[in-house]
Every structure is written in C-alpha cells, then in structure tokens.
Amino acid sequence: MTREAPRSVEGQPHHFRRHNSYDDDALSCLWEEVPFAKLPHDAPKELVDFVVQVENPKHIYAIHRASRRHNFQLLVEKYVVQLRYGCNSPTCCTPTCFSFRRRLAGKTPIRRYNPTSARTLAAYLASKDNPENGLCPHLSPPRAPPAALNSLIFASKKPLSSKGKKHVEPSDSKKTPTQASVRNEKLHQTDQSEFKTPVNTKLNATPHARKIPLGELEEEKEVSPTGQPETPAFSIYERPVSKDYRSFAANVFGSVAFKMLEWLTPNGMAAMAERATEFQDDVKTKPRPAGPGLKPKVAEVKAPHTPSKPYHAPCDETPTRNHSRINRTESSARVVTDVGREPPTPLEPPRDPPVEWGSGLPPITKPAVSTHRPDRPGPQRQNSNARVRAASKSKPKKQMAIDTFPPSTDDMITGLRSPRIVPGSQPEKATKPFMTTTPSITRTLKQNASEDLFQRNTSLDTVVPPSRSDIPPVKEGIVCSSPSTGDELHDSAQSSQDTSETNAESVNAVSDVGSEILPQSLSKLNLEIVDLFCDILQEDGTAEEHMLEPPSIKRRSRRGRQGPKPLKRRSGSRRAQTSAMRQQWKLFIEQSLFHVLSDPYAIVNSFTTENGLLDSPTLWYCMLRITRVAPSLVFDSLWIAAASLFAPPKRLQSIRSPTSRFFHISERSLSSKGASNLLAVCLHALVAAVPLLSDSSALFDVSRLRSHGLSTDNTGPSSRQMTQLCLQYDDVFSDELALRLARRLFSAVSTRRGFQELVETDIDFDSDMPETDILQSILSQLSSIAEDPSETSTLIFSHSEYELHEKRVPTLLLDWARAVMLREWDGQPEVNAAGPFGGALELISAIFEKRHSFHIGDVDFRSEYFPDRLDSVEMPIAWLLDSSTRQRKHLLDYPYLFNPASLVSYFRAINFSRMNRSYEESSSLLSRMKHIMQQGSLISNEAHKQLLSEMLRTASLQYLILEIRRGDPLKDTFDQLWRREERELLRPLKVHLGEDSGEEGFDSGGVQQEFFRIAVARALDPGYGLFTVDDRTHMAWFRPGGLEAEWKYELVGLIFSLAVYNGLTLPITFPRALYRKLLGEPVTDIHHIADGWPDLANGLTTLLEWDENDGTVEDIFARTYEFSVETFGVHVSREMAWPSESASVGSKEPKWPQWHSSMAPPTTGNPADAPMVTGENRNAFVSDYIKYLTNVSVAPQFASFQRGFRTVIHPKSLSLLTSPLLQNLVEGIQTIDVPELRRYARYVGFEPSNKTIRDFWSIVKRYDERMKRKLLEFVTASDRVPVGGMKNLQFVIQKNGEQDDRGHLPTAYTCYGTLLLPEYRDKEVLKERLGMALQNAQGFGFA
C-alpha cells in the first residue's frame, strides 16, 4: 500500500471509509438536536481552568451514542438483505451472502432465511469487531421495505367514549395528550411483550425532513390553525403471530425491540411514512364513522414489488424539540413564529436521487422550506415543527469541524460557528420562545455496535470552517450553565446569596448568550476531579445502572496534608437538587469523561505526573470509581482511544525509513512511551471492572476455576458465596464492551511489537536509545507494587490492601488474557500471533519472565482449558515439525500454559513416536530381508545372501539389546554403547542381566529398571572418580578437574538419556542446578544452589545481609576473593575475576586445571595473596563464586555429559520441561505416601477388606523411609514414585496361596508391578516374612 493510499485502522477495506454525504447530514441533524453540555453554575472554581469548548460534532457524547445506534441499525439492515436476498453477483465469495450459498448449491434447492432467522444472524454479525469486513462488496441497496414491516397494521382510531366519558371530537385537541406516545424508553419496556397496545404515531408525508435517530420513533405533531397540536387519525398495531415458546430465537429476536432494528431504519421509516400518508389520505376522503362501535379501517403494510422512491425533503427542515428542554430562544438565528405564518411555497422533490444505504437524507446544500405537496390532498403541513429563519439570505451554511479521531491525520480544527448564530447579529427577543428538551438519543444502548464515526475519515468538502473570531467571546472565569427559562435564571440569581458578583454576572452573561456557546467539557482528569464526578453521580442517583460489584465506591483519603483539597459543589443554590441540575451535571460529566477518555493524549496527560505514570494503586482506584458510575462510557471511550496504538511511530513515517511507503502519515502518532502508558491505563480499567475481594485465596480459586473454561464449579460442593462470586466474575468477563476493549489492547501489543522490530531494522536506529516496549509501563508498575508501593502511592492503603493489590493486578491481567484467548481460539494448536490471541500470549510471556519479582507461582499461568481439548499424541508430534513465525505461533511454544502432567504426556508421546518410527523402519527392512533369503528369490548365491545379511544386520535389528553382567555393569554398558549409531539408540531397549550367572528373566520393564539401578550406582560411586557425593544431602556433583576421561561423562549422560527416553526413573539425586544447565537456564542466584549446597547458601546469604555497623566484612568473614576446592586430598585454588584485569570486556572464559590433561600440577596456579572480600565487592563475590562452582570448575565434564544426554532426546522436546519437571522425570518423586499408594493399589484374589490386606497396610504404614523405598523397589524395581504421583504407578497385590510348613516368602513380578503375597495365618508371621524378603531381594528368576 503506497503512502498516498489511506490505510484504515486494523486493516478495514478502503471502500468502507469513503466519504458519505449522508453521514454528514446525520451529524448536522444531530448537532441541531442533541443537548449541549455546559459547566453547571454550582461547579467548583477549580474546574474553570480545565473547561474547553468542543468544536467537533464527533467528540460530543450524545452524537456519538446516537451514531453508534444508527450505524448498528444500518449494519443489521445490510446483513438482513445479504442473508435473505444476496447480491446477485455470479462471482460472489462472501460466505454469508445468499448469492454465494445459491452458487454453491448449484441445482440443489436452497431455502432462504425467514425474517426472524435473518435478524438473529444479522444482529450477531453486526455485533462483531469490524463487522464491515463481513459485508459482501457487491451488495446493493434493498429493493423493498424490510420484511419486518409486514407485521404492522394501520387502523383508524376509535372515538374515545366509555363509561360516561364525553365523546372527543378530533378538533377538541386540547383534551388529548400531546406528548409522543412512543419513545425509546417505552420501546425498551415492551421488548418482551407482543406490543398489544396501539402505537399512536403520526408519520410525516415527508419522512426525511430530519433524520430520526436510532431507537426513537418520534411523533410528528400537526398544529391546527389555532396553534394547538392535533392528534393523529390512526394507530399502528402489530399483527398477532403464533410463536414456539420453546424457541429462543423466536421469543427474543422476534420481539418488538429487535424488530425495531428494521422498522426504524431510513428505508423502514420511509415505507411506514408513505403508507401512513396514503392511509390518512384515504381516511380523510371518506366520512368518519358516526359511532364508536364501528370497526376501524385496517390497512396492512406490505412490501411493494417495485422499488419505492420516497420523497426526500431537505434536511434543513429540522423539527423542533419538545417543551421540557433548556431554553435557547435568545439566539436570532432561528425564531419559531407559528402564529400568522404564511404557508410556504411547495418544493419540487429532487429528480433521480442517488440510491445509497440509509439514504433517507440528501446532502445539505441550502436551506429550504416545504410544507405542502401538490400530490397530497388538503392543506396539510409537511413539517409542523420546521423552524422559521429570521432572514433566509443571511442564514449561513452549517459549519462543523469534523476530523477522524483517534488517530487524527489532521490537527484539530480550531473554529466552529454554531448553526444557531448569524454572524454580526445581536440577540433579540422572540415573540414566542420555543422550548427544548433532551431527546431520547442520549440514552445508552448497551450493544456491541459497529465501527463508530470516530474510525471514519469523514469530512465536509463543501463546508469551510470559520475562524474563532466568529464565535462570541466568553469572559474569563465565566461559569456556564443552561437554565430552562429566563425566570428560573432570575430566581437562581436571587437565591444564590453566597455566590460572588463575578459568578452572578457570569450567569447573566450566559442568559444573554444562550445557545451561542459551544458544548463544553474538561480537557483533562485528575484524582480530585474523578472523586468529584463520581460523588455527584452517586449522590444524585444519575450513575449508570450496571452489574459490577460493588455498585459504588467511596472516596479515599490522600497521603499527606500538602495535596490539593477535595473538590465539592458550591452550596446555597435552591436549584442544586432539582432534576434539571442533576441532568445538567450528568450531561457535563458524561461529556467530560468521553472527551478525555476517548483522546489518547488527554488520557496520558490526565494520569501522568512529572515522575511518570501514576502508581498502580492510585490508577486502579481512579478506574475503579469511574467504572462504577459509567462503565459503558469508560469501556467505549477507551476502545476509541486504543485505536491510536495502531498508528506507526514517527520513526517508521520518516522519508528515510524503508517502511515509510507502507504506512499512512499520521500527524498525531503516539510515541512508544505514550503508547505504553496508554496501554497501562486501559489495562487498569479492565482490572478495576472485576469484583473486589478481600481474600487473595478466593481470588486464586476463581482464577483457577476460570482457567478450566468454567463459570462455576460443577464438580463438587461449593458454598453459596463462592457460586455468587463466580457468577459476578462471569458477568464482567462476558461483558461485550469490556471484551472488545481487551481484544483491541492485546491486538495492539502484537502490532507495537511489530513496529519495534521494524524500527530496529531501520538504518537510523540507535542501539543506545532503544524503543520503549509496549508492556514496559505495566511491568514497571507491577515491579513497583512488589517492592514498596507505600512510598510512591498517592492514596492511603493499608498493608493488607497493598498485599492484595500485589496479587490482584497480575492475576486479573492473566485472567483477561485467558478470557480473550478462549474467545478467539478456534480449537487448533496453531494460533494467529498477530491478533488478540497473540497479544495475550505476549502479555502472559512477559509476566512469566518476571514472575519471581512479582511473587507469582507457575500455577497461575496454566490454562487447563487447552490440554483437555488437544490431542495428546498427534499435537506434540506435529509441533516438532512446526516452525513458528511472526504471524503464526504454536501453543506448545508457551509450555507454561499447560499443567505438568500434560507436558510429561507430550514429552513421552514425542519419545514414543520416534521410538515407534525407528522400530517400524527396522521391522520393514527385516521383513524384506526374510523375503530375500527365501528359496527362489532373486539372489541365489548363498554367500551373497550371508554378506547382505551381515551388512544389513544393524539396520534390521528391532531392539537395542544390551548384555550386562552383574560383576561390572558399567564397563559392559560402556563397551556396548560405544560408537552406536543414533538409529540403534532410538529403538526400544532390551536388557539381558546376569544371564551368564544363571539368572533368567523376561525383560518387560523390570529388568531394565534393575539394570539402570546398578549401573548408575556404580557410576556415582565416589571411588570410581567421576562424581562426588555430599555427606549431608547425599547429592552427587561432577568432580572438578577429575582424573577420568571426558568420554566417560558422555556415556554416563547417554545412560541418563536412555532411561528418560524409555520412561524409566533413576535412583539418583542431583542438585537442581544440573537440570537448569541441561535446559540452558542460567545458575546465578543463591536459591539455585540451596538444595545442593545448603551450608554454602546460608553462608553466602549471611555475607550479603551482614550489617557493617556490627563490623566490617573483612574483619568478620575474612574471606579472600578466590574459589577453592579439594580434589584427591589436594587444595586447588584460583583467584576469581573481580577486580583483576581479567574481568574486562572481551576476556576469555577462565578455565579450571584438569588432572588428566595437564602436565603441570594443578596447585601451581594457586594465588599467593588474593584480595579480601569487602562490603563493596561482596555482591560480585557471591555471583562469581556461584559461577565458578557450577560452571567454570566443571565445564569440560558437564559439556561431555550434556552431549551424551542430548544424543537420544530431541532438543526441542526439552523446551517443554522446566527444571523441576525434568528432575522429577529423571529422579522420580522420593517421598512415598502410603495412604496414597493404598488408594491406587489393585488386588487379585484378595478383597480390600481381607484380614491379610489390612494387616499388610498396617505393617507398611509403620515402616520408615528406608523400608518404604525397599518395598517399592521390590515390587516395581525402582524406589522412586514416577512423575505424576501414585496414580501413574502400577502396584498390584496378588494372592499366592496359603501358608504351608515350608514358609514361602513374598515374591514380585517387577515387570508388571505385582506383589505375590501368600495368605499368612497371623500378622506377626506376615511382618517377619515380608521383612525377610525385602532385606534379601536381589536377582531375577521365573517363579
């Protein structure tokens, strides 16, 4: 994409962003109708400095909400047409288009969706992110009104006469109600009913004189010559239909509320208006029924077969609002003078109007008035509410500043002329001032709507914005208000005794200016303003109704007394508690929150200080308060602001950058630091939406439950409080607005990481000044919480609240990431790394890398939902061949998402697959060889057959067979494993042990286990010279500078590898540091060596924590800066790097002297006078000492061991394991839990309640650890429990006859884990015989 071609946000098609005059007309009409937010008169003086005027209609919250609802209706209409009728294109490839379905069906009959099914699918498709992407590019406007109109019936009104009430004639309009009978509120109240009551709606014959907002069916009231409104002459009913009460779609999407999605579109309103006009004309041409008993005339709304062309009235004929609105009569731009008004001249309808989606309004060109059409009988007024201009020639065009926000490619337009102001004119009094009220478009519709107007590059090409000088100046310090009437202003000024003279003049000035002043808002937020706004909304009861818990939050005290004072409303005004003032405050607060939270720069400016972003507890508190008063507004506004995260940074827009041609130049591109701060604020808003908990254990339980993809715990008993808490959590994590925000944030993480990679490849990139990572701010805040948040927090929190917040933020961030992943996952192990799923994975990965500093355990990262739904055999095998890219990732690339049991299963599946492949290859070759050796084969020469058989002998062996003597098992093992090919080592292992001395045994696993036990025991013997064993911990470690050759370490590593490859455990104990090194993890901290060298770890910890006020480090510890070991009774020491010159950059890795290869004695390099360890270098000393202990002193021995260990095991499969998990795989679990072993034991010939069985477990329960291990080794040939616990161990007790005079001892089938236990006569005999068998168990034979 070239630079000149504008690129939409998140890859939206360009044809959806083209200029549409209808959107401009809709904005113009909404600008005329919506209430303007003004700073109330009782606002604190501190807010005046932050007040700004809103010049862009798209930045007005009421317009934004109405536009969202209207756009959603248009999307639903388009999808209904697409689903039911299609585009008629022979090459359509849109899956949801009817033309595509018909093309795929061919000659097979295909059934169209009925209106309810199409409405159901359309509402779902229109609610998805970027719903325009699912529209068919060939889709054309509808040729007929919506099918939902077929259920409407127009009927004449019955005269009102019942129970003695006087008959009301149509002319007696004073006694009829004048308010609109159908409003948005009423419609939502009837969405569960069948709309039985009539809808008294008068639809104008020129239905598009103004755009009717989404969700509002406003009555257009006729005015009689006397000035009184007339009642409509008809009612609208919905046809009764039969429904299947068991159908969810029929009872929900067939309700009135969802049908109005199609009724109230411009096409639907045009069809209803045309039918209503025809019906009303028919009624007027016929005599009215004389009595109330006559049946009314009924007319149904039918969809015509030919396209209807409704009359398009000019948009300037905007109807006035009703009489409960704030007065704006002082402006001379428009004055309503219905009395004595001359009927205007008719206006010819435009010829061949352009057909567009939702084209109910033509573009605004010039003011015009039309109240009569020649083709309609009678002197009926076409727009009874149209306003009369003072002078049509002087009336300017509507001037609006419209830009795309955010991100914006142009700077904010600085001037806007109010459509109610005539330049140069002075306010004059109207003979009959009109009254205005807040229309229903300001009501919130909780719907995941389509792309709003902020994401469209809409502009008015024909409108030139005026300069700011055209707007009347506002005095400095004026507190603006919007009183309802002049009398109310006078009363308010008289009653405010405590208001200063300046404020009184301000109020009077506002009454003079009236509607000239533009909408107002605050330019930024802070802690005090957030508290003020939330307190006002909670006190007035005007906060948004929501399902978040708790529903309200109290103000919290600031730390210190030097901070700003809390803001409060000024008291003394009688209007402070009136309904009008409450609504005025609500309107101003909503506008301010929307104006700030939808602007990324205002967000960063509001929640950052000179020291950077606010601390996490304070930022969380601010988000907590505003999400409890206006959650929908907050999530929607932050979603809009988060769109700026997808704009490339300035470096990528540079002309010198090779990537500049791929990105559209944006003047308001966020820096990397600003993007990171914005992301942190939005993530804190998501965290604040979750219900508050006072117990971290409950937070952990709910998080673990949600990791399984469950809402509540259905597997066991749970308390009522826990169930309620789980449901509250589910309400938050299933909220569409919150999920939409989370998806956009995680998508931005992937996008910004991609931008960062492009910046690093730029020729002008400076490595000394790297770009700020998108997750840096949130990770820094998490780190500050873990360190000491009390020093940086602005608010006062208790110690327990800090500890809870330390667990809350990372846990809930992981929960949000999992929620998005579960929503986005398609069931495949390969996932899209460039979307929300990939961004969530990157957040989890970033937190996992710093989990120790955040005090988070590995279990918090597991998502049990994935392993339960993935194939445990095929998936890991396919992962070995998979290569992840920037766009595609595999779930196994993030092994911390899986539990240890699943990872072990995947690891063993990989090993089994490789073993099976090697076995099948050799078996196939062996079968071919047998066929060749048969008589009559192609090879007839016996010598040739023998030669061929000898050459293919290695390749045709199905097993790796080892012949081992008990006398020297390690030597026999080395001899038979030396120079073996890899394909041989990958085959299943078979061991013949001790057969030279008469032992007999079939190797089904037990003989292998015995072989590894005796071979490893010999290798780890300190007398053999390969390893040393600690006297306290009994842990083995490499001998520094040993006498043995390095190839022996490689063969020992190969033995370890074969054991793990064949699924066996070894009776060894190595420190955790060995397994960290095998996995490539660094060994740098004291806790890495604490299990292998506990005394050393304690000493180093004491050295680091020593307070030099009690004595210097040199005097107390008297340690030199050197590393010393004793090998074969010789003391070998070397001075470590610091502070010698060898520590300089580029120096070679220090080497330890080796006895077997060095000609000089190792003691020749011992330092004569090493420097002392001081308080200055003790940290470096500890790091260097650990490095020499685990790396430098044993480097050649470990390198050889690692080379042998990786011979059989695939290196990529090792990335599935952690160091503790690998240790359990190699060593098993040394702790033997007898009750757990009894739980999983099985019996053959015995019942669990048998006396012998009860006596057996009673005896075993009293065994010490040594006897427990002997018992386990006697039955299974291993004294370790396999990884996964006792459930993965086979332990069978089989009856082996009854006791006789010969006194048989218990025996075991170690290959099958079976204990052959005779039924002894009493417990004492059983104890004696069992102990004798365990003490003398050695060798194999057939029982």
Automatic annotation (TrEMBL):
Location of the HECT domain: 981-1343
Classification via Pfam families: AZUL, HECT
Stretches for region Disordered: 159-233, 279-413, 456-508, 544-578
Leader sequence segment: none
Keywords: Transferase, Ubl conjugation pathway
Comp. bias regions, Polar residues: 492-508
Biased composition (Basic residues): 553-573
Skewed-composition ranges (Basic and acidic residues): 183-194
Domain of life of the native organism: Eukaryota
Enzyme class: transferase
EC number(s) on file: 2.3.2.26
SMART domains: HECTc (SM00119)
Reaction(s) catalysed by this chain's protein: S-ubiquitinyl-[E2 ubiquitin-conjugating enzyme]-L-cysteine + [acceptor protein]-L-lysine = [E2 ubiquitin-conjugating enzyme]-L-cysteine + N(6)-ubiquitinyl-[acceptor protein]-L-lysine
Entry annotation: catalytic residues: 1311 (glycyl thioester intermediate)
GO BP field: protein polyubiquitination
InterPro entries recorded: AZUL (IPR032353), AZUL_sf (IPR042556), E3A/B/C-like (IPR044611), HECT_dom (IPR000569), Hect_E3_ubiquitin_ligase (IPR035983)
GO MF term set: ubiquitin protein ligase activity
PANTHER family in alphabetical order: HECT-TYPE E3 UBIQUITIN TRANSFERASE (PTHR45700:SF8), UBIQUITIN-PROTEIN LIGASE E3C (PTHR45700)
Protein name: HECT-type E3 ubiquitin transferase
